[in-house]
Amino acid sequence: MKLKGFGISNYRSFDEEGIILEDLKKINIIIEKNNCGKSNILRFLHTLNSNIKDFRNFPNDIQNQHRRNGTPSKIIIKLKGSELIVQQDNLRRFRDWNYNVFLNKSWNLYYDLLSQEVNLPEDFENLSNNQLISFQGRYSSAPTEDLKKAVIENWSNKIKSIIKLDFSDLIYIPHLRVIQEGHSFGDSNSSINGSNIISKMFAMQNPEIGHEKSRDKFNLIQNFVRELINNPELKIEIPYTQKEIVLTIDGVRQPLDAFGTGIHQLVILCSALVIHENSIVCIEEPEIHLHPELQRKFLNFLHKTKNTYFITTHSNTFLNSNNNTSIYHVKNDGLKSTIQLATRNDTTFSILNDLGYKSSDILQTNGVVWVEGPSDRTYLLQWLKILTPELIEGIHFSIMFYGGRLLSHLSFEKEKVISDLIPLLKLNQNAFVLMDRDGFTSKAKLAQTKQRVKAEIGERNYWVTKGREIENYLTKKSLQGWLNLDNITIDENTKLENLVPKSAKIKYNTSKSTYAKQIAEHITIDDLEILDLKTKLNQLIKTITSWN
Length: 548
Description:
- This protein has 17 helices and 20 strands.
- The protein has helices spanning 38-50, 81-84, 92-102, 129-134, 144-167, 194-205, 214-229, 261-275, 292-302, 345-355, 359-362, 374-387, 424-427, 448-457, 476-483, 512-520, 533-547; strands at residues 6-9, 19-21, 27-31, 74-80, 106-112, 117-119, 170-173, 235-237, 246-249, 252-255, 280-284, 308-313, 325-332, 337-341, 368-371, 398-401, 410-411, 422-423, 431-435, 462-464.
C-alpha cells in the first residue's frame, strides 16, 4: 500500500466531515468500545474493493448513509501539492517555477464515489493561471476556466488511479472460525477457503521446476506451526488427496482437526496470508478463540508477511506491537464517530480504560525484566537481539521500569508484604532485576536498597553492573561511531556525559532515551566483549528461557 493516509466521509457512523487515518503502517490496529464504529472502516474498504471497477456502483442506500442524509459516501485522499504537479517536459519551466509553492502544501481531496468527481480544496479558486498550468498536462497557456477544468480532470484521474492501485487486491475476514473443506472466510465469494488453501499448500510443498522459491513460503508456515506447538521437529504434510493438513509430531501423524480451535484457526489463516501476498487484509477481532500467547505469536507472524493489515480488536495484546504499527482509537458521541491516532501515553491509557483493562493485566507475561528506565531497555534489547534474536519482547518476556530511587519502594519478598512497598512478585512470579552499581569506584559499598533486593530476589535473578552504570558497557568503538570522534578514553567508572565534548552540543542526561537509540545502532557482537557483559547476558538469557 503506497498511501500513507486516507479518510471516509458520509458512511454509516462517519459524518460529512469524516475521519482520516494518517500515518498508515504495515499493521493498523483499530480499537474502541462496542458500537462506536470501528467495523465501519473495514466494511467501507470491503465495499470499495467490491466496486473497484466502477465506483458508481458503490451503495448509496439508507443503510450506508450517515443519519440517512441522502449524501453519497466519499473517500478522502490526502496528497501534497507536489504529488499533483504534472511531470511533463513542455511544462517543466512552469512546474519548476512554482514547485516550492506547493511542495509542503497538503490538501484533503474528497472523491465522490458515485459521481466520480473530486471536491476541490478551499483555496483552489485563488490559484493563478501559472499555478494552474503546473497541475495539468493539457495546456501550456489557456483561459482560466479551461485550465481549471483540465486540473479537475487531472486530479480526478490521479485519485482514481491511486484508489485502484491500493485497494484492488483486498481480503476481508469478518471473524475467524474453523475453516474446513468447502468453507470460506466471510462471504461466499471469498477466495480464501479450506480447499483453496490446502491445494495451494500442496503446490508449495511440491513445487514445479523453476518455482522452487514457493517452498520458502511452505517453510515459513511450517516454522510458524512449530512455534505454535512448541516443537522444532514438527513437520507439515499435505497428502495427495489434498483434503486435509497433517502434522507429524514425534513420528505420530495427526490431522489438523485433532488440535484445538485456536491452533486450527491460526494455521489456516496464516497459511492464507502467506499465499496471498501484497494485499490489504481486513480482519475483525482476531482474538476470538485465541488466548494472549497465541495472539502475540499471530501478531509477530504478520510482520513476516508481505501484506498491509487493518485489524479491529478488543484485546490489549495487540497494543503491545510497536514495530511498524499504528493504533487508532475510535470514539462515538452519539451522533458521529471520530478517530484519533494513539501517539501519546495518555491516549493509550484512555484506550485501556475503554477496553476495561487494569494495569495488572499488562504484566501477565511469562516474566518481567525490571530496569531503571527507557535507555536501559534500549541497550538491553539490542544486546539480546544480537545474541538471541529468537527471544521476543512481549512474547517471551516484558521489560518494566522501576525508575531509580523508586527501587526503595519495591519488594520482591514473596511471603510478607512490607507496608510501604509494592510486592512485584504478586504481579508476576518470574522477575529479574538489572541495577546500576553506582559509587565512584568498584570497591564502593552497594546501597542498602540494592542489597535488600539482591537478598529478596535470589542469586540468579539479579544483575548489578560491574561498571558504575549500564552505560559503562558501551565500548569505545560504538561511542566513537556515535559521536564520529576519535581518541575517546573510557573506563568502568566514567560517566557518559563527561565523555561528550561541549562542541558536540549533546547533553546525554537530558535525552537519554533518544541518544540511547542512536548509540544502539552502532553496537555489534564484538561490543559484547567488555567487562562481564556477555556473562551477565547469558545468565539473563538462561533465566528467560526457563520462564518459557
